[in-house]
Amino acid sequence: MNFTRLDGMRTRIKFCGITRAEDARAAVACGADALGFVLVPESRRCVSLQTAASLRAALPPFVAAVVLLRNPGADQVREVIETVRPDLLQFHGEEQEGFCAGFGVPYLKAVAMGDLRQPLEAVARTYASAAALLLDGHVSGELGGRGARFDWTRVRDLGRPLILAGGLDAENVTEAIRLARPYAVDVSSGIEKDPSAAPGIKDSGKMAAFARAVARADAMPNR
Question: Looking at 23, 46, 136, 186, which residue is catalytic?
Fold first, then answer.
């Protein structure tokens, strides 16, 4: 589906790296459109398959569950789908387009903007079946959630949904939306109490402040 962001369109919000039921409830109360559950053992925000399923089951209607995977095997993906029943898969590794599209579930493809050497247009063509591209500030081979941002002016309208991630928080997300005009924004460490000491433990006040900052950006004329 061709997509171009129009003035007046609401920016969607994804809170990622959710590990606790109380944080999921707070995120929903703040108006989050999607919650992300990390199933990558190397991540400090990784949860078990059973925890992801429990968190997902507690979500109300119209809040999407997104499961983050990195270079999984096909059997693992099928187990995740059967157990968690996510609305979206998010592939964060070197997965090929055919693999990502082969499970009958819409998917997001993360793009490592930290060392991207090809035009975004080329990536969009490669992953033409993706529901959206998630532009993150990490470099290839790394996971997101490290608070690394990139130059938001590099984002171009590709005629499809783009999700902006990497180093976002309540202090900078308004500017990020003004510059990049994404379909959605994705935040993890920027809404945590102490991401270095306690990754995955969210701060309800920071979540609410982030949502308010997104709303301010959407209210700005000619952003």
Answer: 136
Classify domain 12-219 at the CATH superfamily level.
Answer: Aldolase class I (3.20.20.70)
User: Which residues fall within 8 angstroms of residue 109, CB to CB, at 6 or more apart?
Assistant: 90, 91, 95, 97, 100, 123, 127, 130, 133, 134
Structure confidence by residue, pLDDT tens digits, 26-60: 999 999 999 999 999 999 999 999 999 999 999 99
Domain boundaries, the chain: 12-219
136 is catalytic: yes
Task: Provide the pLDDT for residue 73.
Answer: 98
Q: Which of 16, 30, 46, 100 is catalytic?
A: 16
Question: Half-sphere exposure of residue 25, counting CA atoms within 13 Å on the CB side?
Answer: 5
Give which of 29, 151, 14, 203 is closest to 90, Cα–Cα.
14
Q: What would the pLDDT profile of 153-163 be if each residue is shown by its tens digit?
A: 889 888 899 99
